[in-house]
Amino acid sequence: MNYLAKTFSRGSLLLAVVCLMATSASGQSTRKQLRTANKFFNKENYRAALPYYDQVLTADPNNAKALYFAGISYLSFDKERSADYLYRAAELNPKVDKELEYWLGRTDHINYRFDSAIEHFKNYQKTIKPRNVERKEEVAQLIQYAQNAKREVANPKDVFVKNLGGDVNTAFSEHSPVISSDYNYLLFTSRAEGATGGKAAEDGEYFEDIFETTRTGEDSWEKPRIVAGGLNSAGHDASIQLFDNDTKLLLYQSINNGDIMVSERQSDGSWGTPKSISDKVNTRDFESDAYITPDGSTLFFSTSHYSENGDLDIYMVQREKSGNWGNPKSLGRTINTRFDEDSPYLSADGTLFFASRGHNSMGGYDIFASKYDSVARRWGRPVNLGSPINTPDDDTYYRLAPDGSYAYLSSYRIGGYGEKDIYTINYIKNTEVKGRVLVMGDSTLTLPGVELIFNGVQADNRPISYRDVSKPDSATYSVNVLSGRNYQVQLSLDGQVLETQEVEVPVVLDDTTTVRKDFFVTLDDTTAARIARLAPDAAVGEFKFENIYFATDKYDLRPEAIQELDKIAEIMKANPTMNISIEGHTDSRASDSYNMTLGQNRADAAFDYLVKKGISAKRMVTVSYGESRPAVPNTSADNMQLNRRTIFRVLERDEIQKGKEVQ
């Protein structure tokens, strides 16, 4: 071996040793980062765990373990990314963890892939040991959630869900919105940075605190500020309800395992130190949420105190004459299930809204509604408010605005700001769409008698249709349609489709909005010629009707006469305010009296035919002139044929009403 070869070999060996040492050090670092990440993960401090998993994946992008645990961590606040990580882990190592099928089912369910979620849950069921009954029941319930969600999402309600926006919502959790009676003051609960004391809870996020903001516009708010004074404690605090003319506030504090508290507004506008609402309400166990009726006589609240398995149930208490609260009473099994029921709210019409993980929930908490039957003295079967109010994730804290026109709620939704956000819920309303039908290229030429049919679908894909005909005097139309969707608008004339156009009608949430839409129609030559005869802006007398003619001493309608009468009927239908005079004429072969009768018969023949074609008799008058008004001298057979006629003339609008006939 020559010198260069020996040198190269020693260098390669040295490089290999260095690389091996670096790889070993890198491996040690990766394992250390993974251990640190898992330490936070096991404490459910997912935000703290994720940076360490990301460091592992930067060094080793194909580390299935890091992808797997990072995917589970992201389920807390970034559902879409969770699916990416978990499926990547499954692709790299299908046996990365025995719980993989469970978590794939969870992420698919949250991301609206219900069939896939059910498949993963069923695969996971096969791996559960027979003695693990609790886990079997949980997965069976998850399958039921996915089936419920699939059904509800396939039949959505016409509801507009709108994020309250970045003025209020952050990357952290916001919930429990409370709006003042004038709509301008909002209290809500947040885990954003800046919580009292700046302390982090056990899960690595900030404690819940109550924030406040003031409306600056229809959809804008001042920068939220934490409520000053003694309202917020060192632990979790949450807003619940303003009551007693907005002078008092129900709130939650995490003292004593969770209690319902009351604070009163002070003379300087600040909130006083919270006090327990009642020892009859608060127990040594968890009380989470409440609602007091406007008259102050009844309190609904959620508690785990009376439950056998520690789940939340809804109870109510009545205020006694002494002013104290009485003994709690369960709302019963119709409302309460073996799962959690929370955040009760009673609307002005007596409807109880609440959140439940039971009943036919789509997953996690859903909002349900029930009414009390005073005759049967029981609550009616709760009804799921459905999609899109409810989602496959938690939906809670449903509260109506003071006038009931919209509602607030808190939930995690794809496209939000982070964890739970506050949303508004509005039921989509009908709106008036109006405008004119015009000729393309000439906005001065209007088209009367054009039928417009708006075809669309409701949120659940059931078809809806609305119709109008452009008016004869202005070619205007007006329809009341359900807003917030696209319509295919078919424009037709005399049963012949001119064209179809698409119109987007925006979401309308009030009763006063009008949408303006003019339609411009492109006409072929044949249609244009026909339309010209129907022009609504033609002055009286400008409509040119052809005469119809008769055989000698006859008043039978010839085929060509019928064709002309059909055209007249068409024009009159397109112009419903048009009235006409039908005038019968003869030649000079018979006596004057005979010809007057013959002329009347000829006018009546046309009149009767038009009535059969659907023209109202009130829109027509008949008159006979006999031989007194010849079109040409009766000096030849051809001239006499021209005089054996019925003519049609448009009347002024008041001529029929006044019984006048212009001679």
- CA-atom Rg in angstroms: 39 Å
CATH topology of the largest domain: Neuraminidase
The best one-word shape is elongated
Query: What's the total helix number?
Result: 12
In CATH, what is the class of the largest domain? Mainly Beta
Largest sheet: 5 strands, antiparallel
Strand composition percent: 25-35%
How many DSSP-defined strands?
A: 35
Task: Give the helices and strands, then pairings.
Layout: H1 3-42, H2 46-59, H3 64-74, H4 79-92, H5 100-110, H6 114-125, H7 133-153, E1 159-163, E2 174-179, E3 185-190, E4 209-217, E5 220-221, E6 225-226, E7 237-243, E8 248-253, E9 259-264, E10 275-276, E11 287-292, E12 298-303, E13 313-318, E14 329-330, E15 341-346, E16 351-356, E17 366-373, E18 378-379, E19 383-384, E20 395-400, E21 407-411, E22 421-427, E23 430-439, E24 442-446, E25 451-457, E26 463-469, E27 476-482, E28 485-493, E29 496-505, E30 514-516, E31 519-521, H8 525-532, E32 548-549, H9 559-574, E33 580-585, H10 592-612, E34 620-626, H11 637-643, E35 645-650, H12 655-658
Parallel strand pairs: 23-30, 23-31, 33-34
Antiparallel strand pairs: 1-22, 2-3, 3-4, 4-5, 4-6, 7-8, 8-9, 9-10, 11-12, 12-13, 13-14, 15-16, 16-17, 17-18, 17-19, 20-21, 21-22, 23-24, 23-27, 25-26, 25-28, 28-29, 32-35, 33-35
Helix pairs in contact: 1-2, 2-3, 3-4, 4-5, 5-6, 6-7
